[in-house]
Amino acid sequence: MFVILATAFYLYPAKASPPRQGCVQVYTNCTPALLYPSSHNQLYWFFCPPTSATLLVFGLLSENNHFCLRMIKLVFYGFLLTFALADEVADKFEENEVNPDVVASAPSALLKVTFPEGDEANLGNTLQVSKAGKEPIVQFDSAVAGQKYTISMVDPDAPSRANPRAAQWNHWLVTNVDGAILKAGDKVDGKVLMKYNGPSPPKASGPHRYVLIVYKQPRNLNSRVSRNRARFDIGNFAKKNKLGNPVAGNFFYSENK
C-alpha cells in the first residue's frame, strides 16, 4: 500500500529535458505522478511507500518563480487546515465525551450540519429545540460520488445525561446515501431506516448531546432497525454492518429548561 507523503512542483522550460529552474528539489525513491501537464509547467504528486526513507529539500531557485511559491503555499496551508480540523473534531468529541459515549473512535473530518432556518451545529454549540426540529442539510466535502454512506443522529443522554437508561435515542438513520449528495449538500436521499425526529429532551433534564455521524459503507446495506427509538446503539449497528470508524461528524447541545 502506498501513502501520499509529499507534493512537489517543478517548472520545466518547454522542450527541455532536465529541469533548469524550479522551486523544489526532492531526493527520494518515490514514484512521481504527473498531475498538471502543460507546455511550461508540470505538477507532480509523489507516492511513497511507508517504509521509504524520504528527504525533501525545499528551496527557491528563482526569485521570479511566483507560480511555484503560490502552489507550495496553497498545498502547505491546505494540509495545515485539514490536520487542524481533524484535531479539532477529535478534541471536541473527547472533551464532550462523545467519544466514548457514542463512538469508540472520533471521526477525522467535520460534517457540516445546517438546519432550515440557517442554524448550524458547531462541535458542541447550543441550539434551541425549535431550531433543530426539521431535517438538516448535511455536507461532507470529502464524500466520493458513487460511494455509499450511512448518516445517523443519536442522543446519548436519554432521558438525561445523569441517567441515560434509554440511550442512545435514535433520532435519524439513513443508509445507502450517495456521496454526490453528501458532497453537494443536497437533501438526503437514501434508505430511511428511521425518519428524522428533532431534539425532544424532557423538561429540566439538562443539556442533551445530539450527535451526527457519517460512515462509509463497504457495499449497499439491506439492514433494519427496531421501530422503537430507545436503546439504539450506532456503534453496534456499524460493527454489524462492517462500517468501520465514522469518517465525519458533528454535534450540538439542546435543552428543555
Give an account of the 3D structure.
By secondary structure, the chain is α+β, with helices and mostly antiparallel strands. The chain is built from four helices and 15 strands. The strands form four sheets. Strands 7, 9, 11, 12, 13, 14 and 15 form a seven-stranded mixed sheet that branches. A four-stranded antiparallel sheet has the order 2-1-5-4, covered by helices on one side. The radius of gyration is 23 Å and the shape is globular.
The total count of strands amounts to 15
Coarse structural class: alpha+beta
The count of helical stretches stands at 4
Overall average residue pLDDT = 79
Apparent shape: globular
What is the rounded distance between the termini?
53 Å
Following the backbone from N to C, one meets helices and strands in this order, namely EEEEEEHHEEEEEEHEEHE
The helix content, as a percent range, equals 10-25%
Largest sheet: 7 strands, mixed
Poorly predicted spans: 1-64, 76-81
Strand content: 25-35%
Main traits of this protein?
257 residues; alpha+beta; four-stranded antiparallel β-sheet; 15 strands
Helix/strand layout:
Layout: E1 3-11, E2 21-22, E3 24-27, E4 31-37, E5 41-48, E6 55-58, H1 66-95, H2 98-101, E7 109-110, E8 112-114, E9 125-126, E10 137-139, E11 148-155, E12 169-178, H3 179-184, E13 191-194, E14 208-216, H4 234-240, E15 248-254
Parallel strand pairs: 7-15, 9-15
Antiparallel strand pairs: 1-2, 1-5, 3-6, 4-5, 8-10, 11-12, 11-14, 12-13, 14-15
